[in-house]
Each structure stands twice: as C-alpha cells, then as structure tokens.
Give the backbone structure.
Amino acid sequence: MNKGGKTRLERFIARVVGQRCGIDAAAAATGALAGVVWEVGLGNGRTYDHLRDRFAGRDIIVFDRQVASHPDCIPPQDMVRLGDFHDTVPAEATRSAGAVAMVHADVGSGDIAASRALGRWLTPLFVQALAPGGYLVGDQPMEDAALEPIALADIGAADLAPDAYFVYRKRG
Ligand SMILES: C[S@@+](CC[C@H](N)C(=O)[O-])C[C@H]1O[C@@H](n2cnc3c(N)ncnc32)[C@H](O)[C@@H]1O
C-alpha cells in the first residue's frame, strides 16, 4: 500500500475505469466531428479494442515501438506507425495537422518522472494534430492553453481520484 493509501490493484482498477469513462465521453462528444482517431501506446491492445468499438467506422492510427497486442487486436498494417514516439508522432502530427478527432495516449511506464516528461513532450504535438473540438484522453497530465481540462466528475466518474486519468477538449 502506498500512493494515497491505494494498493497497486486499486490504482490499476481506477486507471482502466478512467480509460473507459474518458474514451466513452470523447466518443459521445465527437460524434459529429470528422476525423481520425489516434491510439498512442498500443500495448496489449485493450484500449485499442475499446476504441474500435466506440469509434466504429473511423480510421484508428496506432503508435508503438512494436505490435505486441493480443492476436484479436492487431491493427491493419497501414494504420500502424511503428517506432519511437519521438520519430513517429511529430511526422504524423505534421501529416494530419488539425484532422484528428480524438487522441488516446496511454504512454506511461513504472518510471513516473519519465512518463510525465514524455506526456509534456507529446502535448504540443497532440494540440497540433487535433481538430478544434477534438478530445485528448490520456494517462498523463497534458497541459496547454489550447486544451480545456474536463474533470472526471463531469463525465460520470466522480468516484475516481481526479488524477486517475486525464481528459481535455481542444478549444475552438
Ligand atoms: C501502458 S502501455 C499501453 C497499454 C495499452 N493502451 C493497452 O490498453 O493495452 C504503453 C505502451 O507505450 C509504448 N511506448 C512507451 N514509450 C514509447 C516510445 N517512446 N516510443 C514508442 N512506444 C512507446 C510501450 O511500448 C507500451 O506498449
């Protein structure tokens, strides 16, 4: 037990509940907004599978160092941007500037300081990629003047700690 008196199991549960609430809120809010979806951090494909369901019919561009997801959750090859985020995300942000309806960024590791720094580095690239009114949902705080933070309590997750997951709407 540490970090606010929560066990690792409790923190994991809060994270995945936050993911589902954030992704579902973004899907509801961006239904009328054209654009692709980004999944930054494929991992084992759990959230990719949820995005495929909630954003059915949209292209989902997926970023990771490798495709190591569950066999049921392998993205189409032409949707994968394979390599380090430091190379792939700036390139794709330039290609699809202003054309992304929703970014889901699940990029953290056990190294909290490194994860926070990665989130800060990625934030302006996500702002560049997002359409006005687009949503950014992620596991790191991502602060930018162009992003309006949305409290978990306002998307039906009042029982979660406010920093269990992070949701923003691009202004405009
Ligand atoms: C927390 S996991 C993602 C979990 C995933 N959303 C899921 O539901 O299964 C983070 C992923 O980000 C990837 N990652 C972290 N830093 C990266 C970097 N700098 N470049 C590319 N991929 C990175 C890791 O390989 C890992 O698969």
